[in-house]
Write a structure and sequence with these properties.
Elements: E1 3-7, E2 10-12, E3 18-25, E4 34-40, E5 47-53, E6 58-60, E7 68-73, E8 78-83, E9 92-99, E10 103-105, E11 109-113
Parallel strand pairs: 2-11
Antiparallel strand pairs: 1-3, 3-8, 4-5, 4-9, 5-6, 7-8, 9-10, 9-11
């Protein structure tokens, strides 16, 4: 059974940093065409944050370009999201996503940016 499990969320002040992790089990992370991060704030639709492809190419949502960095550790089957200069509008539940002809989702980790 393939599972994606996020960790690393929490409460941080504006301007602070957090690093999220997404551990893949039941499959090698490289087996996915791409893996990425999405987020959802109350009352809003789920929003694309970042994606890393099998080729190592990356893509970012406009709202996070220059502040967030996606990476992965293939031997650990783990993907990361380094989030710097966090702002209140970054608050939300962050979900890990894997694209393998069908979609796989984690259950999410809460990120709250507040003073």
């Amino acid at each position: 059974q393939i599972r994606l499990v996020e960790s690393g969320g929490g409460l941080v002040e504006p301007g602070g940093s957090l690093k999220l992790s997404c551990k893949v089990s039941g499959s090698a992370i490289f087996a996915f065409k791409n893996t990425g991060w999405y987020r959802q704030s109350p009352g809003k639709q789920r929003e694309f944050v970042a994606r890393i492809y099998r080729s190592d190419d990356v893509a970012y949502g406009d709202a996070v370009k220059g502040r967030f960095t996606i990476s992965r550790d293939l031997p650990k089957d783990t993907m990361y999201l380094q989030m710097d200069n966090l702002q209140p509008e970054d608050t939300g539940v962050y979900y890990c996503h894997g694209d393998s002809h069908i979609d796989f989702w984690g259950e999410g980790t809460q990120v709250t940016v507040s003073s």
